[in-house]
# Entry
Amino acid sequence: MAMSPAEEHPQKAFGWAARDTTGVLSPFNFSRRSTGPKDVGIKILYCGVCHSDLHFLKNEWGFSVYPLVPGHEIVGVVTQVGSSVRKFRVGDTVAVGCMVGGCDECDDCINKRESYCRKSILTYNDLYHDGTRTYGGYSDETVVEEHYVLGFPDGLPMAAGAPLLCAGITVYSPMKYFGLSQPGTHLGVVGLGGLGHLAVKFAKAFGVKVTVISTSPGKRKEAVEELGADAFIVSRDEEQMKAAMATMDGIIDTVSAQHSLLPLLDLLKHHGKLIMVGAPPEPLDLPIFPLLTGRKLVAGSATGGIEETQEMLYFASKHNITADVEVIPMKYINVAMERLAKGDVKYRFVIDIANTLPA
# Structure
C-alpha cells in the first residue's frame, strides 16, 4: 500500500492543497525529505501566485495529479545545508523558481538551459528522483538541491521580488535569447497582467521602445504613465492597429486566453519575431502566409535556466525592478484564485506564508 503524503518522508510539512479539479485549496499535512548532502532546507516566507497555478489547480492542461500544492515563486531563508553545499549558509535569503531538478547531463543541462531538459522536475505536480511527488511553495518549508536554489539579492524586496521567479524570468529570457533587449529595438507587449507589466519594466531598463497592446482601453494610463511604455494600442481598434502595422521588431505575447495571431503578425516588420509566453489551454490558429511573405518567426519560450535566472535577479535589483503586488494571507487564496481567473489583480498576488500559514 502506498504511503500517504504525510508519511513519505521524515520531515513534517504543512501547506494548502487542491484535492480535485474544482481547484479549491484547503489545509494539507504532508512531508518533505530530509536535507541530503547536496540539499538546502528552506523556510518559505513568501510565494507568488502564478496564472500557471490556476491552470494546474483546475487541470486545464490535462496532467494535474492530486493532492496538489502549487507555488513556484518562492522566497525564503535557509534553515539547513547539506555537507556538500558550498553556495549557501544558514540564514541566507534564497529563492526557488519553476524547477527543482533535472538530468544534469543532457545538452540543455550542460549548456545551462535546465528548463528545457526533457527530465526537468517541476517544483510542484511532478515526480522527484526518488519517485515521490513534488509539492510547491504554498507551504511552510521545502528542501531543494543546491544547484536549483537561487541567491536572492539583499536590496530586492522579498514580497515584490517573488514573482520574478516565474513571471520575471519568463519575459526576461526571450528578450535576451531572441535579441529583443538591444537598445533602440521596438518591442510590442501583448497583455498587461503579471507577465506583461514586468515585460514593460525589463524592456525599458534595456533601453527598448515599448508598445503595449491590450483589449482594455482603460489600461492606457497605467501602461504609459505608471509603467513607462512609449505607446499603447487597443487591439480591437482597427485604425490604431492599422497605423502600427510593420513597425515592431518583436512582440512578447503574454496572453493565456484564446486570441487571434494574425493582427499581431501584421504589426511586425519583415523578419520580426512573435514570441509566445502565455499558454492558452486550446490551440491557436496560425496563418502561414504572413510568415512566408515577411520571413516572420513565431516561437515559444519557457522560463530560463538557473544561471540566467540568477542574472535576471541581479539585473532586477540593479534597476529596481519588482512586480506590482497585492500581498494576501493564506486563507484568502481561494478568493484570490477567483479574482485571478477574472483578471482582477494588479498585477500579482503574493502569499505572506511566514505570517499567515499556521502549522
Remarks:
- The radius of gyration is 20 Å.
